[in-house]
């Protein structure tokens, strides 16, 4: 089947798409295979979704190529592409209750977080790039004394494969699809096999908004099947990926070994925060509690390593402990929930095993540390670890869960050194009321995003991406659309 009726808390029974979306039509996978999507808050199955194999990805690429050559790309104006993106954003506003309920069910997010955060922020990302679609300009270089004219054209790259993770299924969809469409590229999208429902729902809105057939095609499936097929496909011009470093590496190799397709990678992090004695400690604990416990810690920018100056360490730890203990843990369908389950049993067990390793290596579990026992789903308590050192696994490796390791430093130089002692470089933060200190330290932390006396803020206009092994390329801002264009230099003898 391409559609199924599912029970959604708060909405009752609704029919949702579960097929492949190719050429603006719902179709079945060639081999008829499916995979099961599970509700992380109950551990019960939600629905079986079509599983795309290499032949299905191939069908999607053909559709995307045909659209790129005829009804999209350089065949339509940027203003037209922008208008369609704006219409799509308006349809998201209209359907916010359904999209938020699907996202909450599938990814385990609190319903009020999905309604006031994920859905409107994703729609705003579409609007941001809608406004940029007719502003992708080249340059006029020189007229060489009237004998020659040289200029550049910024042209869309072509057919783009997009592979996204499960932690922010809709937002990652918007970050990928919006700039690609604005630039004039066509898309073969593979949502995570753990959270395909919002990306599938968006397909009907794409059609309703009036996008030509083949501009956005969606092929749910596993990484080892649909994901590999995208990264190895000879007629995909670029692959854009968000997910783990290990998978990013594989995609990079597959892209290089196939047709050397262009690659952008948004990968993991182990983001440090430095708390200096002059910081407002209450505010620092608020921000860093949000930084590690938002989305139950399943955030690539999570503030998972906090280093606090010796002189304020005990005070800060007691404030952060309070944040952990007062998190609104609960079922995603409860309006008050800000902290839901982890995405899967595997992810829960991985997080618990990191906590075990911390205990074995001598860390102190200051808050949390266990399964949250009040529901059947994949919950882990908000957890604060102290008495940590740089050699511990919990300090070195990305946990991707609600676990923060709080260490100490005594000089600014030592703090910066500890912050940079990692192969990652996605984000970092500095808390201090000394203006020259925050400016100095922000420049020294090797990461793509730095927050000064705050955490988590992202803006469509500000480029986002990783230093070191946290990635290649940038999303958002003008850099985000440039990543879907290529520059052509034109020499015209007059
Ligand atoms: P993952 O790498 O396992 O999966 C991400 C996506 O890649 C999924 O759609 C998956 O099906 C696909 N995939 C898996 N194997 C593949 C392969 N061999 N070829 C092609 N595609 C493949 O990551 P995850 O577990 O879904 O997400 C968690 C990780 O993502 C964390 O490490 C986190 O730090 C990272 N992440 C980074 C960002 C960022 O913006 N930098 C954002 C969110 C998550």
From TrEMBL:
Keywords: NAD, Oxidoreductase. This is Aldehyde dehydrogenase (NAD(P)(+)) ald5. InterPro entries: Ald_DH/histidinol_DH, Ald_DH_C, Ald_DH_CS_CYS, Ald_DH_CS_GLU, Ald_DH_N, Aldehyde_DH_dom. GO terms for molecular function: aldehyde dehydrogenase [NAD(P)+] activity. Residues 26-489 form the Aldehyde dehydrogenase domain. The keyword Phosphoprotein does not apply. The active site is at residue 266. Belongs to the aldehyde dehydrogenase family. PROSITE patterns: ALDEHYDE_DEHYDR_CYS, ALDEHYDE_DEHYDR_GLU. Pathway: Alcohol metabolism; ethanol degradation; acetate from ethanol: step 2/2. The keyword Hydrolase does not apply. It comes from the Eukaryota. Pfam families: Aldedh.
